[in-house]
Amino acid sequence: SQTIHQWPATLVQPVGSPLSLECTVEGTSNPNLYWYRQAAGRGLQLLFYSVGIGQISSEVPQNLSASRPQDRQFILSSKKLLLSDSGFYLCAQILAGGTDTQYFGPGTRLTVL
Amino acid sequence: GEDVEQSLFLSVREGDSSVINCTYTDSSSTYLYWYKQEPGAGLQLLTYIFSNMDMKQDQRLTVLLNKKDKHLSLRIADTQTGDSAIYFCAETPGGGYNKLIFGAGTRLAVHP
């Protein structure tokens, strides 16, 4: 089965502070991993995806970055948060083969004040 | 470009059927998905349909796909209060890394 862990579940940070959100997954090795952001009342926007350790692709230029130090670990970071970074951050992994369906973690709700 | 559109809100009476509609632009999409998001929670995959299918039924859920019009719908039979949530339509455009393009979500409210 696919299990995705995200922490923290909620976070309140001041503008200009750093950020580190962590996602770890269980299941198949070498999964494709994704970070999405959902702004209030909006759909999901793909931020980053990774097809392997150390391989990161960015979809949207911004002050966020991502890293994949281990096969099943995906980290979202920022050196200085902006108000516009507030949102619900979701990590996802793909079940390779078959329907290529993405499974989502429980999410981290970030509020930047 | 890649775009998925949904109506933002739907209100139905408990026991009635709900129909949530979605239009998409990328005709090369292989799969189309419906996800459900309950308040404060992550996304739960409800169902999906392969692009060469017209219809898929799964218990109370029926997905209809009209490729010519690039229109996808989700019908929920006998809607219950537990079905109240936001429903997202998503497609996987061609590209090789399986990113999902989501609509903004339809908020379904079920009232007695």
Oligomer: heterodimer
Structural class of chain A: mainly beta
CA-atom Rg of chain A in angstroms: 13 Å
How many E-type strands of chain A? 11
Q: First CA to last CA of chain A: what distance?
A: 37 Å
> Spans of chain B of 5+ residues with little confidence (pLDDT < 50)?
none
Percentage of residues in helical conformation of chain A: under 10%
Beta-sheet strand percentage of chain B? Answer: over 45%
Give the overall form of chain A: globular
Number of helices of chain B: 0
The residue ranges of chain A in which pLDDT falls below 50 over 5 or more consecutive positions are none
Helix content of chain B: under 10%
**Largest sheet, strands/sense/barrel of chain A:** 7 strands, mixed
What is shown here, in short?
The complex is a heterodimer of chains A (113) and B (112). Helix content of chain A is 0%, strand content 58%.
Can you describe this structure?
Chain A has 113 residues and is mainly β. Chain A is built from no helices and eleven strands. Chain A has strands at 3-7, 10-13, 19-26, 33-38, 44-52, 55-58, 64-70, 73-78, 87-94, 102-104, 108-112. Chain A starts with a strand and ends with a strand. Chain B has 112 residues and is mostly beta strands. In chain B, a hairpin with a 5-residue loop joins strand 4 and strand 5. The interface between A and B is medium-sized, with 26 and 24 residues.
